[in-house]
Design goal:
The complex is a heterodimer of chains A (256) and B (259). Chain A has 256 residues and is α+β, with helices and mostly antiparallel strands. Chain A is built from ten helices and seven strands. The chains are: A alpha+beta (256), B mainly alpha (259). Bound molecules: iron/sulfur cluster (2 copies) and FE2/S2 (inorganic) cluster (2 copies). One iron/sulfur cluster binds at residues 156-159, 172, 204-210, 221, 225 of chain A.
């Protein structure tokens, strides 16, 4: 990219009462990301443009927005990956209430987190109250711990985005948060009933949009949601298991 | 309480610039053609075998007119007016396995039902039940179709073995290779299944305590990573295999004997 290229941006401006796209022009320079362009537009022509950011390294999860309709981190979206022959649209996350311009109120996600049952240690391995934990056992949940809470997955999930099931479905981010507790080798809590009922795992129709947008490349659907769905099947939908449990042949769920 | 007001998008509304409709359209065409072809082929009831080759749509052949039938010809208790074909007796099992497969579900909910049409693209319907209640709650029985699929693999492997024996002498025809590729791909598809992954070890929280299960889990997981590829390749192969045997049986093409 040469330094003389300029690009047009259509940035959503407004607040909860309404708004519209406003066009801005700015010069592009080498290695620029969308967040740089937004900062440059703030400096040159729109000092009152609201935008949230923090690390500019894809690690704080603050700069989530929809760039050309795709939920992305602005700081990790390189300008030379976008076509600049047409205006680049930047808009706030669709699924959460608007505060102003590119900033939305994502606090709903934190409220959902409070609804998930906390970590609760299982019986210790030894009488002195200590445990042994192997890397092999913790590997699976380490993938989920990479989450930076950017909520791009929550934004793109159609159950929230299009169907507004915010009161019945906790969304992919919170499902993998639940998975990280439920699959934890030292955890003894049972969250399956809650997953099935109030957290609405059945609403997920495994269309994998969450996995596609995750900047941490967490395989949300394959490694988190589907394994949880299978555990819910074990507990509530597998007719053979239900009969065996009723006959006492199989034990009720305990921490494995 | 819903405390998050959302501005509803119209069907197809999006700011996406890419051709988001291409992938679902291709899936729609492939899955649609497969369903139409498989249904048509299942109702034919003839041209499904040639000598030692048997079409996978008709395997295992419980009753039927071919030498491959396990229990002889069509039983008399099936009334005349009931449409009969050996495929109709068994095809519900592999059909149900694919229909309830996690990968295909995600795929056809998008391509056939537009729920969503593509990621971050507006939907045609407001109402949504997901897989939480009837009818789609029955997708949760996927593992039972898996049990049948594993059972069927033995018959398909036996068909592959038979496909190398031409009048009691060993030989290799193009048909033998297609039938063998088919069982390998179907094996890959079946053993990469998400339910399989759960059942062999995914249900555990402490792998270190169960080393054998843990290794099985690792094997299935590595296949599972490419479950979508296994799904598509086996779909093409199973249909291709039936087409090949049908054309052979109709005399349209000849089987090329490699040796
Ligand atoms: S896979 Fe499930 S959680 Fe992820 S976006 Fe699709 S419906 Fe939402
Ligand atoms: S799972 Fe991925 S997309 Fe979702 S909040 Fe975490 S990092 Fe973001
Ligand atoms: S600014 Fe921290 S993730 Fe983009
Ligand atoms: S998940 Fe695809 S076959 Fe089981």
């Amino acid at each position: 990219m040469t330094t003389s290229v300029s690009a047009t941006f259509k940035i959503w401006r407004g607040d909860a009462s309404g708004g519209a796209f406003v066009e801005y022009q700015t010069q592009l320079s080498e290695g620029m990301v969308v967040l740089d362009a937004v900062h440059q537009i703030q400096a040159e022509s729109a000092p009152d443009l609201a935008c949230r950011w923090n690390c500019k390294a894809g690690k704080c999860g603050s700069c989530s927005a929809e760039v050309n309709g795709v939920p992305r981190l602005m700081c990790m979206t390189r300008m030379n990956d976008l076509p600049v022959d047409q205006p680049v649209t930047i808009q706030p996350l669709h699924t959460f209430p608007m505060i102003r311009d590119l900033v939305t109120d994502v606090s709903w996600n934190y409220r959902q987190k409070l609804r998930v049952k906390k970590f609760s240690p299982r019986a210790p391995d030894r009488p002195d109250g200590t445990y042994t934990m192997y890397q092999r056992d913790i590997e699976r949940v380490q993938e989920f711990r990479k989450c930076i809470e950017c909520f791009l997955c929550q934004d793109v999930c159609h159950v929230l985005r299009d169907h507004e099931k915010h009161d019945e479905f906790i969304g992919p981010r919170l499902l993998i948060y639940t998975a990280s507790l439920e699959m934890h080798p030292l955890d003894g809590e049972d969250r399956l009933q809650a997953l099935k009922d109030e957290h609405g795992i059945g609403y997920c129709n495994i269309t994998k949009c969450c996995t596609k947008v995750c900047p941490e490349e967490i395989r949300i659907t394959d490694n988190g949601i589907i394994p949880l769905k299978e555990r819910v099947v074990d507990e509530f939908y597998d007719p053979l298991k239900i009969v065996l449990r009723a006959l006492g042949v199989k034990k009720q769920k305990t921490a494995k | 309480m819903v405390d998050v007001p959302v501005k509803r998008l119209r069907f197809g509304q999006t700011q996406r610039r890419d051709a988001w409709w291409v992938t679902p359209a291709i899936s729609f065409l492939i899955l649609g053609s497969f369903v139409v072809y498989a249904t048509w082929a299942a109702f034919q009831g003839d041209h499904y075998f040639v000598g030692n080759y048997l079409s996978p749509f008709y395997s295992p052949e419980l009753w039927g007119g071919s030498p491959h039938a396990l229990f002889g010809t069509k039983p008399s208790f099936i009334p005349e007016w009931v449409p009969f074909s050996p495929a109709l007796l068994i095809l519900w099992a592999p059909g149900g396995f694919r229909f309830t497969c996690y990968y295909y579900r995600g795929n056809y909910y998008k391509s056939m039902w537009a729920d969503p049409p593509a990621c971050a693209v507006g939907e045609p319907r407001k109402h949504y039940l997901g897989e939480k209640v009837f009818p789609l709650i029955i997708q949760n029985l996927h593992r039972y179709f898996l049990y049948f699929a594993v059972f069927f693999l033995f018959f398909l492997a036996h068909d592959a073995w038979k496909s190398f024996w031409f009048n009691d002498s060993f030989g290799v025809g193009v048909g033998s290779l297609i039938i063998t590729a088919n069982v390998i791909l179907l094996g890959g598809y079946t053993f990469s299944c998400h339910s399989m992954r759960h059942l062999v070890g995914g249900f555990l929280d402490r792998f270190s305590a169960k080393p054998a299960r843990s290794s099985c889990y690792d094997c299935v997981s590595s296949l599972n990573r490419h479950h979508h590829l296994w799904a598509w390749c086996s779909l093409f192969c199973v249909a291709g295999c039936d087409v090949y045997i049908r054309l052979l049986s109709k005399g349209v093409i000849c089987d090329w004997r490699i040796f």
